[in-house]
Amino acid sequence: MDSTQAGGKWQRDTVFHRVAPGSLQTQSGRSLAPGDLKGSVYVASFFFATCPQVCPRLNAQLQRVQEKYRAEPRVKLLSYSIDPQHDSVPVLARYAEEYGAIAGKWFFLTGPQDSIRHLALHEYRVGEPGPATIGPAAGSVHSQRLVLVDRDQHIRGIYDGLDAREVDRLITEIRVLLYTYDHD
């Protein structure tokens, strides 16, 4: 889906490593287990509810993705809070409501700080060189990156979530993945 440079040459339809998304609590208070994502394509992001600038813009772009795939049950959004000390289940529930998150489609997730940090750095790798900044809690990774994960849990693309053209490309690449799955 995404293009990347490898060995000095551009390659299309890159498939990155496999993600283990972990089991965390959603804004409804239930656990989202990896099996809940079986067969789904999803977009992962990292945010915190008290973020004044980047996160509202990032989530506005995720609203666009949600709206485009509102009726497609195979597309989900996972927004991981990097500030679990503040972003409790009730805080996430209010935040999800503020962004019009559809139940069962857009999950706002919280859990132990070390688990979130592991996901950001080692599973989704949003801390690698590029647009990433340090969040409010010591050692947290706050990023404007959106990560597209396919139904087999492989990262298929990484996008700048503040760039509308990049989000348009994400939307297109989700459609291409779904088309591919429909025509297997």
Summarize the structure.
It contains 4 helices and 11 strands. By secondary structure, the protein is of the alpha+beta class. A 5-stranded mixed β-sheet has the order 7-6-5-10-11. Strands 1-2 form a two-stranded antiparallel sheet. Strands 3-4 form a two-stranded antiparallel sheet.
Report on the architecture of this protein.
The chain is an alpha+beta fold and 184 residues long. It is built from four helices and eleven strands; from the N terminus they run E-E-E-E-E-H-E-H-E-H-E-E-E-E-H. The chain has helices at 54-68, 89-98, 113-123, 164-182; strands at residues 2-6, 9-14, 24-25, 31-32, 41-47, 75-81, 106-109, 132-134, 141-143, 145-149, 155-160. Strands 7-6-5-10-11 form a five-stranded mixed beta sheet. The protein has a two-stranded antiparallel ribbon with strand order 1-2. Strands 3-4 form a two-stranded antiparallel ribbon. A hairpin with a 6-residue loop joins strand 8 (132-134) and strand 9 (141-143). Helix 1 packs parallel to helix 4. The chain is globular and about 45 Å long.
Helicity, as a percent range: 25-40%
Radius of gyration: 15 Å
Main pleated sheet: 5 strands, mixed
Runs in which pLDDT lies below 50 for 5 or more consecutive residues are 1-6, 131-138
Key terms for this structure?
184 residues; alpha+beta; five-stranded mixed sheet; two-stranded antiparallel ribbon; 4 helices; 30% helix; disordered N terminus
Present the secondary structure layout.
Elements: E1 2-6, E2 9-14, E3 24-25, E4 31-32, E5 41-47, H1 54-68, E6 75-81, H2 89-98, E7 106-109, H3 113-123, E8 132-134, E9 141-143, E10 145-149, E11 155-160, H4 164-182
Helix pairs in contact: 1-4
